[in-house]
Structure prediction request, 250 residues.
Amino acid sequence: MQSAYAILIFSACLFGVFEGCFGALPSSIKTCPRNHPDPNRCILDAVNIVRPLLAKGDLGDGYHTPPLEPLYLDNIEMGRGNEFRAVFSDIQARGGSNFIIEKLKANITNLSFDVYILLPKIEFVGKYSLKIRLLLLNINGKGDMRGTFKNARAYVKMRGIKVHKDGNDYVKFKELPLRIKVEDAQIHLDNLFGGDPVLGQVGNNIINDNHKLFLAEVLPGLEKGLSKSFVEISDNILQTATFDEMFPLE
Prediction:
C-alpha cells in the first residue's frame, strides 16, 4: 500500500513549492520561470533543495508543510464484489526522505508533468480489515498490520488547466491518475482468521509468498482512491496562487 507514498512525496514537494507563493518565498524555495531553457532540470533542482526540509515540514522563514516523516494516511477503502473487500486506516509510513525522481517530463506552459519516482525502502504500520481470495484460500481478518516495501516505483500523470478569476489565471488539476509497482514486499497482518495462530501464519505466508498477486488485488483501488485525494489536496493548496506567481516570466 505504501508505494503510493512516492506520489504523496512528489506532490508535497511540488505543491509545497507552490504553497510558498502565497507570500514572500522562503529562502529554501527556488522558482522556475516558465521560459526556462530546461524546466525539467529547474524543477528537479528545486525539489532536491527543499526535499530534506520536508521530513519535518519546516521550510524555514516561518513556512511549514505537513511533515513527511512519518507520513499519515487516512482511511482507504476498496472492494470488488463479495470476494474482495479491504479497509486500511491509521497508516504511518517512514522512509520518504530517500526518494529518487528517476525521470521528469515537464511542460510548464501546458501545465503537464509526468513523474517517475523510486522509493528504495518504505516501512509502515497501521490497521486493516480484509477479506480476499488468494490461491483458492479465503483470507480474512481485522487488526494491526506492519510491513516493508522495497524498490517501490510510482508514475503520476499531472495535467492542469488555467482558470481565469478576478483578472488572474489560477491553476487547477482536474485529475492525477497514477500507477504503482512494488518490486519486493514483506507484510504481516495480525489477527487473521479471528486470531487463530496456525491459520494466521498460513495466511501471512501465502500473502508474502505471493505478494505480487496480493498487490495486484489491492493496488488498483488504492490508486483510484489516492488519485481523488491528490486532486482535493492540490485544489486546496493552489486556490490562492496565480500561475504568474508559481511560474514567473523570468
Notes: The longest strand covers residues 137-165. The chain has one domain: 2-246. Confidence is low (pLDDT under 50) at residues 1-9, 16-24.
